[in-house]
Amino acid sequence: MSFFDSEIVQQEAKQLFEDYQSLMQLGGSYGKFDREGKKLFIEQMEAMMDRYRIFMKRFELADDFMAQMTVQQLRTQLGQFGITPQQMFDQMNLTLERMKSEIEHST
């Protein structure tokens, strides 16, 4: 069975995509959130990033050819911007840490 034929993989991919889309739509109103709303948004983004990191690690560890091709495509696409997948995650974490810091230092 192919990695992508797994119902679990398909469901997690679908859920990650839907959650990401929802958070991005919600994030458009981030500036209007109160302090607690901003904290909650950041926590949800961190949780989603953790899920995404685990999902991608499954791809990396899979013996499946298509899973390996997917990882390679991501690396190639990010490489066009001069970054690696790890740098992408690091940058996202840095952004979320900056957002937390802004909340802590606002009145």
List the helices and strands and how they pair.
Elements: H1 7-27, H2 35-61, H3 65-79, H4 85-104
Helix pairs in contact: 1-2, 2-3, 2-4
Protein name: DUF1825 domain-containing protein
Pfam families: DUF1825
InterPro entries: DUF1825
Describe this structure in words.
By secondary structure, the chain is mainly α. The protein has a domain at 39-107. It has 4 helices and no strands. Helix 1 (7-27) runs antiparallel to helix 2. The longest helix has 27 residues, at 35-61. The relative contact order is 0.11. The mean pLDDT is 91. This is DUF1825 domain-containing protein.
Order of secondary-structure elements: HHHH
Question: How big is the Rg?
Answer: 16 Å
Beta content comes to: under 5%
**Biggest pleated-sheet summary:** none
What is the residue-averaged pLDDT?
91
Number of helices: 4
Q: Keyphrases for this structure?
A:
single chain, 107 residues, mainly alpha, 4 helices, 78% helix, globular, DUF1825, DUF1825 domain-containing protein
The gist of it:
With 107 residues, this protein is mainly α.
